[in-house]
């Protein structure tokens, strides 16, 4: 017997396809009664990037402000995408917003952070979008590919839709 899906970890890179993948997370939550936890990982700066930052921004408080701004900017974008999604979704699906039990932006290494949060939150399913460009290795995206390979829970990688809307993310009404 397959385990029930009670908690879904929806991971976003804030791309158009990520918004499309969110539709699947909402659909699956409706069908299973699961809660959704939203996660955006802001990639941690490499040592070279941190060294460059220290070289060009000598003032420590300015460096910290820059790093803090990266997280805040991702939070704002995530909030805007969520607001837009719930604004244009079919009226009968608007009640699904109550299934969002968490929404966080975390700095870290994407694959490890996604897997760690899935375990900490005791999720039963990970949902994320495929990368937007290229052939298989870039189509899937290295983060999606690594999560798929290393995850010990079912993981749904949503491919790009054939038709991409020109307005905001690829969010379509049902």
UniProtKB/TrEMBL annotation:
CDD domains: USP-like (cd00293)
Superkingdom as given in the UniProt entry: Bacteria
Gene3D superfamilies: HUPs
Residue span, UspA domain: 6-159
UniProt xrefs under PANTHER family: STRESS RESPONSE PROTEIN NHAX, UNIVERSAL STRESS PROTEIN UP12
Similarity-based family: Belongs to the universal stress protein A family.
Protein's recorded name: Universal stress family protein
């Amino acid at each position: 017997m397959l385990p029930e899906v009670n908690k879904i970890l929806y991971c976003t890179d804030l791309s158009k396809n990520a918004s499309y993948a969110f539709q699947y997370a909402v659909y699956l939550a409706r069908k299973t009664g699961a809660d959704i936890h939203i996660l955006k990982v802001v990639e941690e700066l490499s040592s070279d990037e941190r060294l460059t930052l220290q070289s060009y921004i000598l003032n420590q408080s300015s460096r910290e402000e820059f790093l803090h701004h990266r997280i805040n900017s991702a939070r704002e974008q995530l909030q805007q995408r969520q607001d837009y999604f719930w604004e244009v979704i079919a009226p009968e699906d608007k009640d699904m917003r109550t299934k969002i039990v968490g929404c966080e932006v975390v700095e870290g290494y994407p694959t490890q952070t996604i897997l760690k949060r899935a375990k900490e939150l005791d999720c039963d399913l990970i949902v994320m979008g495929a990368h937007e460009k290229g052939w298989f290795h870039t189509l899937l995206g290295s983060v999606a590919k690594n999560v798929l390979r290393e995850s010990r829970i079912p993981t749904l990688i949503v491919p790009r839709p054939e038709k991409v809307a020109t307005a905001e993310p690829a969010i379509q009404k049902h």
